[in-house]
Amino acid sequence: MAGRQMMPRSKSRILLFSLSLLVFSLLFFLSSFQQGTRLPPTSRHSLTTATTAETSFVASLDHFLANKSPSTKDDTASPDADVTPLDEAVSRSEADRLYSDPYYPVGLPLRVYVYDMPKKFTYDLLWLFQNTYKDTSNLTSNGSPVHRLIEQHSIDYWLWADLIAPPSERLLRSVVRVHRQEEADLFYVPFFTTISFFLMEKQHCKALYREALKWMTDQPAWKRSGGRDHILPIHHPWSFKSVRRYVKNAIWLLPDMDSTGNWYKPGQVYLEKDLILPYVPNVELCDTRCLSETNPKRSTLLFFRGRLKRNAGGKIRLKLGAELSGADGVVIQEGTAGEGGKEAAQNGMRKSLFCLSPAGDTPSSARLFDAIVSGCIPVIVSDELELPFEGILDYRKIALFVSSFDAVKPGWLLNFLRGISAARIKEMQQNLSKYSRHFLYSSPAQPLGPEDLVWRMMAGKVVNIKLHSRRSQRVVQGSRNVCTCECRPGNVTDTVPIIS
User: In 295-390, which residue ranges form alpha helices assigned H by DSSP?
Assistant: First the structure.
């Protein structure tokens, strides 16, 4: 009897032990899975601090060139390269993803193929800048130092440097670099269009543009999509200008979308296709400590430093200067972007509540981003301005938008600013301290920095890119083209009353 009673107990203990082991294994697996989906410790830390990130273009570039060698791989394709093998490989890859990933093609991370271009399009141009940037006598026709213009439009460097960095050194989770073209959602073309424009002799630059154009359009991936899934950094409005008409299907990375026709031809740029990126700020970040020290001492109501005489929409500057100069609490200064100008602008912005941000030759200027990182509330007078990452960021929380019509009315703008409550000003200053991180390019690129927001915005374009690419591939030769109107209404700014 005793033996018969012990056997069930033994079996019960074994069963209980087995169940306990199973539960423990399940908990361990879930714990491991959750840890795998979290950011690594360095990434979590970087969400709250960027102390280890380099935000100086010159310093970052020096480190990059000292530690990075040009790739021995070369993606140069034959002009008559066959598209069919790539097209079939892409179809298989997309079918696999469709049936295995319940969220495809929506979601992150984006898969980006970075072309290995000949170094005359990449490293040679970076070395050219490095060897010449100290020559401050190299000025543009309007007196601005060439190297400063290149720095403020250096988005091509920051994106590329992050994409090609070893995975162990990258913090972003919104994008991964793939090394097989059939796996890519998008293709990045790392040609430094702005450096070549400013530092090369005009005819040599145009010749290099033509070479780059041929190199791109020879690629099977370009031929397959007509360039629709290719990203081109064209952040200065003069860069790549002589050959733009041949690449208008590609995704352009731009500073703005001037609809006057002065910089971009009708049908070349529009929000559904292209992406607006912020300028690199000309001034240093006013961090939390800086803001706590400067905000109580901001005695200037409205500050502006820059060139008052501009073309196109920038003519508003002269009218504003005439209206505001000499008014109580207003500082209007004529100035350039040299080192002395940088220090004067930085000091002025840190002493001011509001910073005037009118249109320049184009609707945008680096001044807007200088104001944001200085904790100075931007007053935007640029009726057709498009803003970076506006699908993610709400600029009404940090800036005031004023129509050109209202801004030049005698006394209107100053009465408007003086009528804003202290509570509202404090709220906007606090929001500026939170938003600054979204406009600081850095190495390594930081989560929620501009490089990260680029790919989050790009993710929203992928489905539409695939739609238009496939549609172009299956259109029957000789069929009637579907008419699409490229004439889009301008982005006109209305004055929005401030709720005190």
Answer: 316-324, 339-350, 367-374
